[in-house]
Structures are given as structure tokens and as C-alpha cells.
Amino acid sequence: MDNQKNRLTSSEITSLWAQYIQDTMSVCISKYVLAKVKDSEVYSLFEFTLELAEKHLHVLRDIFKAEKLDLPIGFTDKDVNLDAPPLFTDTFWLVYIHEMTMHGLAGYSISFSVSARKDIRDHYYQCNIDAMDLYNKSIEILISKGIYQRSPYFSKTERGHSITEWGYVMDLFGDKRQLNSMEAGNIYFNLKKSIAAKALVNGFKQVTKDKDIYSFMEECLHTASKNINIFSSLLQQENLQSPRLMDAEITNSDVAPFSDKLMVFHAGFLFHLATTYYAAAMITSMRIDVAGHCDASILRDLKTISSFGRIMIKKGWIEKLPRADDRKELS
């Protein structure tokens, strides 16, 4: 059936809307990074990132125009200061784009799975391929530079055994069993994301001049630091290495490279995503203390997300999504 006879569903509109905002943010960040980085491989990676974001935005604008839907405002050149000095090192930006690409892969997969119209599915199919290309490029550079941090290795493999004792899951007060591969892998995965987010908000806190936004970044920093400390200690108890912190990748610049709106949105976006990753780790963790720590981290992140919502509303930065028709108003 012709696409013109199939209106966009609410799920499709939401996916396209969210992607437009995120890709306009990506354009701003990529332009700034390209103006500052010295490493040729990192430069090439962000050239590719910018190319993909602009390609996706072209498709999105065509879809919104065809559907007679207003474009979101998103972010523009007004939200980036290309004259600002470097706020982060080239190493940070390399790790950053790798982590953000993983978020993109997760988001595009969901958008593909909730889309019914073929043109929308085709778009997200291509977005997934683009994100996988970017992921491969970024991880190859990380590995070649000796920067990539692998999740813990286990020295032995065991034959398959069934769990026959409740202590495998419920032992709170005795000697806890060692972390299994899924628990250790999830902890390491979430730690890497929290560490990158912590460095990002620490840099943003350093350059903002707005007291409300400074306080919000302080809260983000406190939440991320607590989560990092808890999950790092779980690995250390097993003599497993934690990912290294990235605070040393922040320069001493006090000039904001991005608008307050972009910095707050980016921080809130990362905390929103963190709750989903902690939830996935929680439901797959069979040690009750690990599941409990994931649950507590979700609650801490939700508190920070609440602060994010308040400041975005106070500043008038939240855009309204298209709404369902008000039948009472129409009658």
C-alpha cells in the first residue's frame, strides 16, 4: 500500500522526533570537535559522524515535510561556540563517540522494531548499518591506540551445571559466590558509560555560568560518582579491574563550547539511558546484592532525571510532541 495512505503512527513520530533532536545535537558537537582535535584519526571519525548526522537529518526533513508535520527546533549553530578552546582531549572525544554509537545502535534497533511503514523501516535499517560502521571504525582506532578497555577475562571455563542451591541467588550474609560472566560484564559495561558521563558533566559544570545549571551538573556528578564507586568496589572485591576514570581528559578551559540548553539536554539524555541499562543488568543478575545495587542506581538516576525535567521546564527548553486529537474539544 502506498505510504501516503498510511499515516505515521505515534511510535514512528516519536522515533523520528527524538532522532531529529539527537542528530541536530550530534551536528553541533561534531562541528566543535572538528574545529579542535589534532589527531587525524579522531578527526576522520568525526567527519564521518557529521556526514551521517546530516544525511539522516535530510531524510527526516523530507519525511516531516511530506507528512505536513512541524519540525522540532532541536539544536542549531546558535548552540555551539566554535571559538571556544578545547574542553576535552582528543582521547576523550574518541571514547565519547564510541560510547554514543552504542546508544545509537540501541535506539535505532528499537525504532526499527516499532515502525510499520516500509519507508520508515528502511530508514532505520540504514541507520543501524551506519551506526555499525561508525562503531567498527571507533573500536578499531581505540584498539590500535591501546585505549580500548575490555571487560574482565575469566581464567577458566566450567562445564554446564544446574543451580541447585538458593545461596547462589539469596546469600546476603554469608560468603557471596563469585560474580558470573553476565554480572561482571554488565557491571563493566555500565561503569564505562558512567565514567564517560561523569567526565562529560564535570566538564560542563566547569564552564557553565548559570547557578541552576551548575547545581544540576553537581547533582549529576554526585549521582554518577556514587554509582561508579559502588560498582567498582564489586569488581575489586573479585580482584577484577575496573575501567579507568576519564577526569584527566578535561582541560582547564572555562569557556562553554555549547549552549546551556545543549549541555543540560545531553546530561539528562545520558541519565535517561542509564536507567534502561541498569534495569537490564538488574533483571539478568542472579546475585541479589548486585540486583539491589542496580535497583538503587535506578532510583538515584530517576531523582536526577526529575531535576533535569524541572530545569528544562523552568528554562522553556522542552518541546511538545504531537498530541492525540482532543475528542471533547472537537465535539
TrEMBL record:
Which InterPro entries does the record match to this protein? DUF3231, Ferritin-like
Superkingdom of the source species: Bacteria
What is the recorded name of this protein?
DUF3231 family protein
